[in-house]
Amino acid sequence: MTTNLFRRDVLRLAPLAGLGLAIETGTVAGQAPAGPAKTPFADAYGEGQYRLPPLPYDYNALEPLYDEKTLRIHHGKHHAGYVTGLNATLEGLQAARTKGDYAQIQNLSRALAFHGSGHILHTLFWHSMSPTQREVPDVLADAMTKSFGSVQNATSQFAAAAKGVMSNGWGLLVYEPIADRLLILQAERHQDLAVWGAVPLLVCDVWEHAYYLQHQNNRGAWVENFMKLANWPFAASQLEQARAGRRQA
């Protein structure tokens, strides 16, 4: 029980560990109880297993910028698949340890990074959008200006990065704690091209499953819609938590 509580607490602090976080723990995929999450990761893990957290809004709340059908499939099928894959991979690693047979360690390690990062990024992604149009809070605007010259520069670079990801991946606004600055990254798949220790603040999914039903192959149109949904207060909250963690380190 103590171990499970520790792992649950660590996962709730996942943004402070950067994109590479994947904790070995329980094995059975499941649906978290309905209702809004208190934190992005509050319902993403519990009772010794990774779980599919509920959305922080209704499936139709982002219409017309993000259609209900795509959102239902994206959350209920794709994100759920990463949860299932993560738990199955952990079962495989447990079996390998029990047998002392690590013949599949390379495949299992890759699957752990892929499914673990997919689960974490999708959990952040749902919170990176909001049905309410919101301004960039001052704390985030100041950080953007310090790091990129202006808020406009930051948002323009973020949109360009998301549109320009090679193949499938993500556009990410992250906090880099060593220099106390923001960076904008392109991640390929879920786990590639990460900067270790960087804390995701806002993430945009540009895998085709995120937008194909609504926009077909027009990724640019999807990214423009995402920018209108961007939950900047959430990003500001992530930034404040990351800076608090930096001060305590």
Q: Please tally the β strands and state the result.
A: 6
Number of individual domains: 2
Number of helices: 8
Shape: globular
Helix/strand/pairing category: alpha+beta
Strand order of the largest sheet: 1-3-2
Order of helices and strands: HEEEHHHHEEEHHH
CATH class of the largest domain: Mainly Alpha
The CATH homologous superfamily of the largest domain is termed: Fe,Mn superoxide dismutase (SOD) domain
Euclidean distance between termini CA atoms: 27 Å
What's the CATH architecture name of the largest domain? Orthogonal Bundle
Radius of gyration: 18 Å
- Average predicted confidence as pLDDT: 84
How much helicity do the residues have? 40-55%
Biggest sheet, in brief?
3 strands, mixed
CATH third-tier fold name of the largest domain: Helix Hairpins
- Percent range for β-strand residues: 5-15%
**Unreliable spans:** 1-37
Task: Describe the fold and architecture.
- It is a single chain.
- With 249 residues, the protein is an alpha+beta fold.
- The protein has helices at 2-12, 68-99, 105-127, 138-148, 151-163, 212-215, 219-229, 232-248, and strands at 30-31, 45-46, 49-52, 169-176, 181-188, 199-205.
- Helix 2 (68-99) packs antiparallel against helix 3 and helix 5 (151-163) runs antiparallel to helix 7 (219-229).
- It is globular, with a radius of gyration of 18 Å.
